[in-house]
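Deviation from plan, reported transparently: LKAUPR5Q complex.
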Amino acid sequence: MTSEPLGVFHPSGRFYRFTILIFISLLVLGSYFAYDSIGALENTLMAELHLDRSTIGSLYTAYSVAAIAIVFFGGMLYDKLGPRKASLLFSVLVFLGAVIVAVAKGKWMLIFGRLIFGAGSESLIVVQSAIISRWFKGKEMAMAFGIALTLSRVGTVFSFNTEELIADHFHSFRVALWAAALLCLFSVLCNLVFIAMDRHGEKVLSLQKAEAGDKIVFSDLKKFTSSYWFVVLLCVTFYSAIFPFTALSSDMFHDKWGIPNVTAMSGGFLTKVFYNFTHMFNTAPGITSITIAASMIFAPFAGGLVDRIGRRASLMVVGALIMIPAHLLLGVTHWNPIPMMALLGVAFVLVPAAMWPSVPLVVEEKRVGTAFGLMTAIQNGGLALFPLLNGWLRDKTGTYTSTQIMFSGLGAAGLLFAFLLLRADKRHGGVLEAGSGAGSRGTELQPE
Ligand SMILES: N[C@@H](Cc1c[nH]cn1)C(=O)NCC(=O)O
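Because the crystal trials were delayed, the predicted structure below was used instead.
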């Protein structure tokens, strides 16, 4: 009997797998754009809505508080709906939250919008991680995470480089916030394509029904090894020194170095966008986005490298180490900030590329959902606290020196956790340091 050749677009093939990856990545494009639209528009928002920096920080805090609550209590919802319906529900929440932010008349409505937005957005990111693990298990997993990060970062980089421009061009910051909401709607449409492809793939490949992504199963907590906990601790310290920093860094570049928010340029809107991108190093939000652009460009290559050489814990050590001088020099010197932002960019390439794909390697397969959910909840604890502290310290002291020392300290704590991870991984057989072929999925791991 001759077997039918499988088409190029068969769910078991690479082409199908990577196409589905594109849509699962675009699922969060809008939310990444909208997440940082606050940071990108901070000077305009502060002027137009009479907000202080602590309030800008509190908009990030509201996002993370909602995220922590939903990740802990949203488990039942996942159980009932499954990730496809849940992803749809959460992407609609993201869109709704972005709309509320766009129409908000003052601080409290903005905070309410960010709460709704955060509840949807972080859950969507966890579903995304669980789906990537499911489609790329034992395949190009770190590279897949890298590609997903790249497409997410496109949202962030565009946010920092177009939002002020949109507000400036249309003489209204609301148009810029509506642009963010529209992009969230685009992500809802991408979600529909992903759902169709995932359902088809599941049927054709007789895949196990997709499990709930992020339900926290409390009895699982004591089953996790120290390697997992060190990854989580590094995650919270590392990201607390990145996103809360970028939330206000455009203001720092404007305030401390006098760098403008948009380039003075006449012409049509698209000409201005193009000019702004090509002169990214001349604007405060553009300089903020250097770090993110580095991660956007290099994440898939770093992921491919991690798949091949392993050395995940060592790369996390290097990334955390680089962060310490980069933040410190931004705080205590008046040197050109671009090289420091580039250094932070290197850290932002290395650590996420090695960290997120490490999770499925250090926990048992059936606990991957819990592991990602818990890590996201704890990460958001830092993302809730540090933007507030950043804004508060800046408002109190009148400079960003103390906040930069704080971020540098977070880098030092991250370095300590990365070293402890390296040591714990040695004890657990070096699964994180192993390259392709040599690494196991850690199913034999036992709690200490
Ligand atoms: N939990 C997110 C936070 C975020 C940033 N922008 C939108 N949400 C996260 O940490 N994602 C991983 C990453 O490296 O961006």
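Confidence is low (pLDDT under 50) at residues 438-448. We consider this an acceptable substitute for the interim report.
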